[in-house]
Amino acid sequence: MSVLASAVPARRLPRAATLLAAQHQSSIAAVPRAAAIAICRARVLAARAASRRAGRAGAPPGAGTGPARAARMTTISLSLDTPELAQAYEHGSDRQFNHGKLLIETLGVRRGQRVLDVGAGTGRLAAHVAEIVGPEGSVTAIDPLPLRVDIARQKARVNLATAVGRAEDLSAFATKSFDVVYLNSVLHWLNDAQKQRAIAEAARVLKPGGKLGFSTGSREKPHQLEPIQRKVLADLGRDAQGNRPYKLTVDEVRALLERAGFIADTVEILTFVDHAADVDEILKHSGSSSFGNHLSHLTPEEKREVRERLAKELEALRTPQGIRLERNLIFAIAHTAGN
Ligand SMILES: C[S@@+](CC[C@H](N)C(=O)[O-])C[C@H]1O[C@@H](n2cnc3c(N)ncnc32)[C@H](O)[C@@H]1O
Questions:
Q1: Is the dihedral angle over the CA atoms 282, 317, 303, 216 positive or is it negative?
Q2: 137: domain CATH number?
Q3: Which atom of ligand 1 is nearest the CA belonging to 290?
């Protein structure tokens, strides 16, 4: 699975992060870097303009404006995880792990720091961060899914602790006790009220001048699979809602951070490119990443039908490397006031 073809925020990324991005660059490698930057930036600006035209710009998360928000009736369940899904995530989450490493580079995590990984899943990224902070530092990894925390616990060591816990309730941790808090591919699983509590809690547990970083799905630039899947579901007469993530726009992310008192350093959309062997690999990844929520509103028969139709649609995206899909994430880095 190859990852990352983004140049949008390269100017603002630290050099190490830019190099990491370049190492993973795949499908747009043939596009001159300056041209790629211009294309991606133009797309982001266009998406922001569209978002403003739709009257959503600056609306605080949870404001419930617009028909899309009004129609949103689904909830994400934390009760659908299974041992198989948790293991599949542990062995098939290179995408999240690789963009997570980029997030950590961008945050500038360094030796000796106290770090909180919120929604750590099976703990792959937390273990990587434990290497960076070394024995003088520490990483605490929390996740609400006990099956995933069980796997993360196997990676525990002197400077890496794991626990079951949720982003919205960090009461287990003292005020001003961490240098860095991050959420990698987590925030879009929280509804608007939960997001606000999570970011407020992160602000509380961070030391003055402490850093918050997160990667999260972009609503203005959705995953390339989304419109294809929506069409397949519509053709079957099924709604496309299901238990799908609650994505935000760049402007909504900025509003969310400001509301909690954060000073935003970077809020940008990054475009990543993935290649998959076939539709089953894509569906397996979606199932394990969503801890069982993806397409969970369908019957087994409907799921089989969706798989068949998706397989046909996705063949149009096949390249010599596999089925090529673009994925867009908002990367946000912010800090609390203080020294
Ligand atoms: C796609 S996984 C990302 C896991 C990990 N951060 C990584 O980079 O591999 C999403 C994770 O978000 C977690 N999650 C869902 N709701 C959450 C909440 N309310 N608080 C904290 N984590 C949550 C899930 O349990 C799941 O492990």
A1: positive
A2: 3.40.50.150
A3: 1
